[in-house]
Description:
Blueprint: E1 16-20, H1 27-31, E2 37-42, H2 47-58, E3 64-69, H3 76-85, E4 93-98, H4 100-112, E5 116-121, E6 133-137, E7 143-148, E8 155-159, H5 160-165, H6 168-190, H7 208-233, H8 239-259, H9 263-271, H10 275-278, H11 283-297, H12 302-315, H13 330-339, H14 354-375
Parallel strand pairs: 1-8, 2-3, 2-4, 4-5, 5-8
Antiparallel strand pairs: 6-7
Helix pairs in contact: 3-4, 6-7, 6-8, 6-11, 7-8, 9-11, 9-13, 11-12, 11-14, 13-14
The protein binds zinc ion.
Amino acid sequence: MVRVTKTTRGWSSPAKYYQGPGEIDKLPSYTELFGKKVFAVIDPFFYKDLTARLEKAYAGTGSEIKTFQYEFEVTDERIKKISDSMKDYAPQVVIGIGGGKTLDTAKGVADDLDAATIIVPTAASTDAPAIGLSVIYTEEHEHVRARFYVNDPDIVLVDSQIIADAPVRFLVSGMGDALSTVFEARANIKSDSANFVNAQAGGFRSTKSGRMIAELCYDILMANGIKALYAAQNHVVTEALEDVIEANVLMSGLGVENNGCAGAHSICEGISILPELDVKTMHGEKVGFGTLCQMILENTPDDLIDEVIDFCGQIGLPLTLDDLFIPNTDENVRAIAKHSFHSYWEREPFLVTEDDVFAAIKATDQMGREYRETYNIEPAYTRR
Ligand SMILES: [Zn+2]
């Protein structure tokens, strides 16, 4: 049952959000609000450099920091092992610095140790940083469950220069994830579905604030997406890039938690039935294509579809199955459509069947191929 069963409105968000170039060096001033013992889980790619940088930042502050290199996968056992190893040290603050899996590990360790959580994403590639849950896997990389926390992170801190230094494809993928936010929010609101605030307890009716943030997320992408890419391609921070980072990380996170997912994320989930192809593309790239599929399925007016496909084409998001490395066979499309029902289609404002989804994917792929031929645009980032 996804429809609201009560009229109570519910809202959730991180307690604090900071974003700007060089913010990571200010971590000591943020962590000392919670205590003097700090533990950081850091992505392997950044581990050596950031450990040295943090040790320098913490020197002489009166606070102490220990670091740990995130290794492999987010499992219950790995989180427990790290937490157990930190029991004697008993940090008051746990910081996660890196990609989604590093951040999810840090959230779990902070929860185990009753410590404050500070989340520092090193790419603006998804809306996960601001949300109070971890996705738990097995050692064989199979999805197990979502581990929900009572609160969203205490602080989300984004160093815009680190985001600007990351591969451009990450930012583009984040825009794909953020692009879905408003269309999924509108579907949930129309169907009066419960949002993801305390989702484990059934969620709430959306607030107007949640709705407006989803709308603003879309407006920011349309106004600044391309300009933000110019900055990211040169690894510099501009006002447009700052706006898009905020849209990708904060507005998209708030938008999904306070409204819910719908068709776009269902398509993304459907693609995971083809594991060898699924791993070749990023979450937001699949969600971007899923947004186009949701719009076709909802029979969205042409002017809005044109605006969205133009945006996707110009920033290099996938427009076709081929952009996602998926051969357009009836067998593949049927498998995606079927598996997509393990997620959020029931949140659309009308009944959606497997045949509807099959048809929407086929028609979206045709639209994307014709768009590519007509405008002769650069290939999607997946194909560069
Ligand atoms: Zn997403």
